[in-house]
Amino acid sequence: MSRREGSLDPQTDSSISSLPHLEAKIHQTHSLARLLTKYAEQLLQEYVQHQGDPFGLPGFSPPRLPVAGLSAPAPGHAGLPAPERLRLDAAALAALPPLLDVVRRRQAELNPRAPRLLRRLEDAARQARALGAAVEAVLAALGAETRGPRPEPAAAAAAAAAAAGVFLAKVLGLRVCGLYRDWVSRTEADLGQLVPGCPA
Amino acid sequence: MDFTLCLTQRSRMVDSKRMRMTSNFQWPLLTFILLYLMSQVNSQKKGAPHDLKCITNNLQVWDCSWKAPSGAGHGTFYEVCIENGSYSCYPSEKTNIKIPALSPGDHEVVISPLRDFGSSISKFILSEKNVSLIPDTPEILNLSADFPTSTLHLKWSDRGSVLPRHSNVIWEIKILRKKNMEIVKSVTHNTTLNGKDTVHHWSWTSDMPLECATHYVGIRCYVDDTHFSGHKEWSDWSQLKNISWSPDSQTKVFPQDKVILVGSDVIVCCVTRDNVSSAQIGLTKCPLIHLDGKNVAIKIHNISVSASSGTNVVFTTEDNIYGTVLFAGYPPDIPQKLNCETYDLKEIVCSWNPGRPTALVGPRVTSYTLFESFSGKNVRFKRTEASTNESHQLFFQMLPNQEIYNFTLNAHNPLGQSESMILVNITEKVYPHSPTSVKVKDVNSTAVTLSWRLPGNFAKIKFLCQIEINKTNSIQELRNVTIKGVENSSYLVAVDKLNPYTIYTFRIRCSTETFWKWSKWSNEKQYLTTEAIPSKGPDTWREWSSDGKNLIIYWKPLPVNEANGKILSYNVSCSSDEETQSLSEIPDPQHKAELQLDKNDYIISVVAKNSVGSSPPSKIASMEIPNDDLKIEQAVGMGNGIPLTWNYDPNMTCDYVIKWCNSSRSEPCLMDWKKVPSNSTATVIESDQFRPGVRYHFFLYGCRNQGYQLLRSIIGYIEELAPIVAPNFTVEDTSADSILVKWEDIPVEELRGFLRGYLFYFEKGERDTSKMRSLESGRSDVKVKNITDISQKTLRIADLQGKTSYHLVLRAYTDGGMGPEKSMFVVTKENSVGLIIAILIPVAVAIIVGVVTSILCYRKREWIKETFYPDIPNPENCKALQFQKSVCQGNSTLKTLEMNPCTPNSVEVLETRSIVPKIEDTEIISPVAEHLEDSSDAEPENHVVVSYCPPVIEEEIANPGLDEGGGTSQVIYIDIQSMYQPQAKPEEEQENDAVGGAGYKPQMHLPVTSTVEDLAADDDLEKTAGYRPQANVNTWNLVSPDSPRSTDSNSEIVSFGSPCSINSRQFLIPPKDEDSPKSNGGGWSFTNFFQNKPND
C-alpha cells in the first residue's frame, strides 16, 4: 500500500489498518457522503427555487453571512492531517442539524405549501447527523480523538439572525444550505482519500 | 400726526356706522372736526403717542401698544385713561399696557405722556373690532414614532382654559421631511375648546418608512370665536419637532417584512453609509431616490401579489447586498357559505369557505374567530396550511339548555378583517352520523327487528329513519319509521311483512323530524328470514304412459316465494272411490312419479314438504274426456312466445292446461305445461327452452267435471327458419322434350318451419361446362317453376330440346327463408323425326332451286350469251383501220389512221337536240349518246353522231312517266333509295314540297345556280325535298366526264351531291360520311357486274 497524502499510516496504528472492517467502514461512510453530496446539491436548488427572485439568478450573490459556530471549509483544510480533517468535518456536521432545523422552521412559515423543500430540509438535518456520527465512528476506529472542543451552539445565533427579518432569514438559509453542501462534499473528499483505490 | 392717526382711525371706526348714523352724526361730526383742528395746532408744538394697536390671545385681556412720540426720552411715563362707563387711568412705563377687555362699543383712550412737557396727549377711539385675536403659539407636547408602522403620533394641549368660552379651533399641522425640510403633508384638524386644557392626539402614517429620513412636525392654530368681532389671526407655528432613526453601524432596508395591499404604492429605502449602486424588486430594477446622506429609496407602484415567500426588494452596494421582503396580499374575504350544524347535539360544527385567497401564509395567514353572542364564548380557528379552496371548520361545544346560537365568524389578517354571521336553532340543524352496528333479529318468518347505534344526545328530538329493504330479484323497498331520540344512542325498530326464507339486505339512514339532512347510509346488513310452511301445493300434471297402464304424475318445483323454505320431499297419493295409493317422501330433486293404475278415475294429490310443514295438496283428476273433433293447427310464435287463443267455453269449470313438447319426440312427450284460469281465452306460451326452427306440439286441455278434454292440437314454431337441407329429387323419366322429376319430403327436424313450397330451376347446361351459376339470379335463360302445392311431389318439364343437357335445381322454402339447393344434370333423348325432316327439307329446296335455275337459263340463254359473251367485231374487217401495207411495212411509225368503212352494229341518226333520238335497235341504248348531246359546247348542234357503244344492260325504270316528261335529258333513275333512305314524310308534306318531287330526285334536276347565295335556299330545300347528299356540296368540283352536270353548267362551282354514274348505282365520289352506306357494300347491285370498273 503506497502512502498517499492524508492516507492512514500503517506504522502508526497497524492494528487498526489491518482491520478489514475499518476499510469497510470508511468505504461505507464515503458512500454515504457521496450520496449526501448529491442530496445537498438538490436541496440547495430546491431552496433557491422557493425564495423568489432574485434568488437563484446567476448574478445574485448575497453576502456570506457568518454563522456562529460554523465556518466554511478553510482553504488550508486539505493540508491538514487526515484525522484532523475528519475531526473538523465531524464538528461541522454536528453543528449543521440545528441550523437546518432553524431554516426548516422559517421555511415552514414562508413556504408552507412546499412540502418537498421542507422534507428535504428535515432529511438534511437527519442525514448530517448520521454522517457526522459515521465520521466520528471512523475517527474512533482510527484511534483518533473523536471530539474536539465543542463549537458554540450555532442554532441560537442562527435563530436570532433569522428572526431579524425575512430577507436575512432567506439569506441565512441559503448560507446554511451552502455550508451543508460544502461540508458534506468536503467530508466525501476527505474520506475518499482514505479509501484504497479511490482518487483523492 | 397723532390726531391725524386718531382721526383716521376714528374715521375708519366710524365708517362702518356711517350709513346708519348719517343723520345722527351731523353734530358730533362737526365736533370731531373741531377737535381734529385743535389737535393739529397742538401737534405742531411737539409729538404725541400714536399707532395704538390692541391684540388679545384669550379674549379677556387686551394688550395695547403704541409708538412713543418723537423725542420722547427713555424714562417717559404714560398715563392711559380709558373711558369705559367710568373713566379709568393706568400708568405705564412702557409703550404698551394690558387692559381688561372692554365692553362692546367705542371707548375713548387717552394716552398722556408724563414728565414730557413737550409732548401732547393722544386720544384714540377703541372698540373690539380694532382688536386682533391671535392665539398663543401652540406647543407640541410630544411627538413619537411607531417605526414598524411608519406612524407619527403628535400630542399637544389646546390650552382651552385660557379662553373664557367655547370656541372652535382649527389646528394646522405640517410635516416636513429630510434636512431640507420638504413639506410632505399639511393637514388641518378641528377641535372645540371646552374651557379646559385638553391634550389632543393626531397620528399620521407616512408612505415612507420613518427610518429613511428625518421627519419634522409643526403646528399652529386659529381660534374661530363666533362672538369675537375683531380680527382673528393664525397663531405662530410651534417649534418644529422631529423624529429621526438613529442607525447603528449596520445597513438596513426599510420597511422590513411589511404586509401591504395588492395594488398599492410603497417606498422602500436603504439606510446605509455605503454607496448604493442599484435597487430591484424581484427582477425589476428601480430608479433610486436619494435621501439624506447616502440613504436611497425606491418607489414601487401598484405592487402585484406576492408569492408565498414574499417579494424580495434588494439594494446592491459595492460589496454587499441588502434587502427586505414585502408581502403583497389581500385582506380576508367575507367568509362564505357559513353553516353551523351538529352531528350529535353535543358539538356544533361551523363550516365556511374562505373566499378569495389572501396570498398570505404563515404568520400572515387569516385567523378566524367564532364568537357566540348569547353565551359570549368564542373559539379560534387553528391555523392550517390547507388548500385555500378547502372548506374550513370550527367546533363549538354546545351549551346546556341552549338551542339558539348566534355565531359571528371574524376573519382577520394584517391587511384587514371581515365577518359573517349566522343565527341557528341547532335542533333543526342536526345532521346525524351514519348509523352503525346494525343488527337483525328474528321475530318470526315474516318479521325481524333492526337495531343500530346513532351516537349523540338526541333525547329531545325525534328521528325520521328510512329502512331500505332489498330482496334478490325484487324491487327495492323503502320504509319510513319515526322513532324518538334517546340518550344512549341505541335504536330498535320492527320490520314486518317480509317473506319467509328470503334473503334481505337492510340499510338505514336517519334525519330529524324537522328535516335538515339525511345521514349517510349505514353499512348493509344481509339476513335470511326463517322458513314457513309452503303456501301452495305444486303445479301438477299427469300423463298416461304409452301402454296406458301407468299414470305418470308430474309437478313443478315450488317457486321460492311459495316454497317458503327448502322443499325436502313430496307426497303423492291417488285416490278413487275404491282405492288409494300413495307415494311418500319423494325427495325434492324428483318431480315425477309413476303409479300403476287401472282406468278408473282417480284424484291425484301432491303435497310439498319443508322443514316447517306440508303445503296444501295440489289435486288433479286422471280422467280424460275424449274429443273426436280434433284437427291439428299451425301456429307461429311472436318474439319469445307463441300466442294461443280459444273460444270461451262455459263448460270448462276448472281451468285450462296447455302442455307442449318437442314434436320430434315420441308420444307421450312432455316438456312443460301451463295452467290458466277457466275464464281465460288466450295465453302466450313462453319458455326458455323454446328454440327457433324447432317444431313444438301444443295441446290445449279444458277441465270440466274433474276431467280433462283435449280441445286443440297445435303445432308451431317459436320462429321459423329456412330448411337446412334440400329436397332429395330424382329424374323419373326423360324424353326428347320433357323430363319428369320426383322428390321426397324433407324431415321435420330439417325443415325448421312450415313448408311453403318448392322452387324448381332449370337451364341448358353441361355438367362440365356449366359454371354452376346461381340459377335464381334472374337470368333470362333460367326457367323457374314455383310449386306452392306442397303435396305435389313430381314435376314434368316439357318443351325441352332433344339430346340437350339440362341443369336442374330444386330447393324448398319456408317462411323462414329458402333452403339449400340440390342440382342435377339431365340429357334429353334424341328426336329422330326432327332430324330426318331437318335433312330432307334443305335437300329438296336445293333441288328445286337448281331445276328452276336451269329452266330459266335455258330460256334466256340468248340474252345471257349476248350479255356475258357478246360477239366482238374483228378490227381487221374495218376498212378505216386498214393501213397500206407498204407504208405500214415501210415505216410503221408513219402509219396513219385510215378511215375505212366498217360495218356498224347499229346506226343512230340524231336530228336535233330536242328530238329524242330514234333508236333503231331497242335492245341497245347508248347513254353516251345523251352525253354527247349535252356536250354542245364541244360539238355543233346539228352534228350527227354515229357511234358504236357496247351494249349496256339497264334496269327498267320504275317510273316511266318521268322519262317521258324529262324533255331532252336521257336520265336513268336508279333505285338510290336502296342506298340512302330518304326521311320519312307524310304524304301531304311531300306533295307540298317546293321541288314537287317525292323521294329521291336526281341531282341534275336540282335548281343549282352558280351563285353561292342560293345555297342557303338549297339548304331549305334539302330539308323538304327528300333525299339530299349529306356532304357539303360547295366543295365539290365536278370534273367527272360522266357527270351530267359537269357539261351542263357553265358555273365554276357545281355541286349537287355526290356525282353518280348514270349507269351505276354507285356514287362516283363516295360520300365521306361514314354513316352513309358504303359504295362497295350498300350500293351493290347486279348491274355492277356489267361495269368495267365497278368501284368507280
UniProtKB/TrEMBL annotation, chain A:
Localisation: Secreted
TM helices/strands, residue ranges: none
Coiled-coil regions, chain positions: none
Cleavable signal peptide: none
Keywords assigned by UniProt, alphabetized: Cytokine, Secreted
UniProt keyword Acetylation present: no
Classification via InterPro entries: 4_helix_cytokine-like_core (IPR009079), PRF/CT (IPR010681)
Family label: Belongs to the IL-6 superfamily.
Protein name, as recorded: Cardiotrophin-1 isoform X3
TrEMBL record, chain B:
One of the Pfam families matching this protein, by short name: LIFR_D4
Superkingdom of the organism of origin: Eukaryota
Region (Disordered): 1065-1096
Polar residues bias: start-end ranges: 1085-1096
Signal peptide as annotated in the record: 1-43
SUPFAM superfamilies given in the database record: Fibronectin type III (SSF49265)
Annotated transmembrane regions: 833-858
Keywords: Cell membrane, Disulfide bond, Glycoprotein, Membrane, Phosphoprotein, Receptor, Repeat, Signal, Transmembrane, Transmembrane helix
Membrane topology: Single-pass type I membrane protein
Fibronectin type-III domain: residues covered: 334-433, 434-533, 537-628, 723-832
Cell compartment(s), UniProt: Cell membrane
Major location category of this protein: membrane
Coiled coil: none
Family named by the database record: Belongs to the type I cytokine receptor family. Type 2 subfamily.
Protein name: Leukemia inhibitory factor receptor
Protein species of origin: Equus przewalskii (Przewalski's horse)
